[in-house]
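Explain the record.
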Amino acid sequence: MAPAVIAALESAFPGLPDAYLAQVREDDSAEGDLAVDPGWIAFWPAADVARHNAGYRVSEFLPGFLGFGSNGGGELLAFDTRAHPWRVCMIPFIPMDETEAVEIAPDFETLSRHFGRHSKAG
C-alpha cells in the first residue's frame, strides 16, 4: 500500500485503530471468511473509504459511524467512533439506521482474530 494513501486515510479519519491500519497496509482490499456474523468480510480499498462513506451518506444516516467494508452483500461493516475503543458493527444498507447496528466485535483487533475462519453457524 502506498504510504500517501495511508496518510490521506489517517488525515481524513483521525483515530483509526492501529490494527485496522496494519490490515490496510498488508492488504487493503482483502476479503474472506469471518468466524462471526456476517460470516464474510470485504474491505473497501483505502483509497475508496472516503468516497464510499460519502456515496452511502454514512455521516448523514449513521452519525458517529465510519464504514470500512461490507459483507459483500446487504450489510455495511463500520466503526462506531463514539465508543472507545471503536467497536465494529454490522448495519443493513437498507434501512441504514443506527437502531439496526449490531456489534460484531468490541474493537478491530478482536475482529481480526476471526479473519480466515468459517463461522460455526455457516
Observations:
- The chain has one domain: 3-112.
- The first strand starts at residue 31 and ends at 33.
